[in-house]
Amino acid sequence: MKLYIYLFCLAVSLAGLSSCSKSSDPAPDPVVVGKWNLSRIRFSGYPSPFTSLNGDRVSSTYNLSDVFSIKNDKSFTETYSNGVQISDSKGTWDFTNNTLQLTFDDGSNETYTVDTTQDPVQLLSSVTSATDSLRATATSPVQSVPFKYQFIYTK
């Protein structure tokens, strides 16, 4: 009888031990965590006769450098340079449905979209409208020409 009680207690103990599990593994880092470098600028919306200006250009063509370091603790830093001045910024971030929302310490916000269909994955800024003063030919008058641009970052 003692043997049966002993085996019963042993079985209950083993069942109890096997039902305990480790805490669940930590969630993987969101795709946005890491170092993002400005790799190109996408221009669009240039009208005729300036349509040849539409397309992607390497950011170094314009002497621009921009690096975001997105950290797992929901903070980020940014170092931006236009070839003359360098500025450093920091803040916090939120990531939902492939949208990265950056909130800078000065209260300003920027929104980026993560494009996971590209290899490597891309971080896309919002499309911004701008104008430039251009000449269609060397002898034509300068005219104000609307266009759009978007910054594209890769890890």
Automatic annotation (TrEMBL):
Residues covered by the Lipocalin-like domain: 33-116
Keywords: Signal
Segments crossing the lipid bilayer: none
One Pfam family matching this protein: Lipocalin_4
UniProt superkingdom: Bacteria
Residues annotated as signal peptide: 1-24
Official protein name in the record: Lipocalin family protein
Source species: Spirosoma agri
Organism lineage: Bacteria, Pseudomonadati, Bacteroidota, Cytophagia, Cytophagales
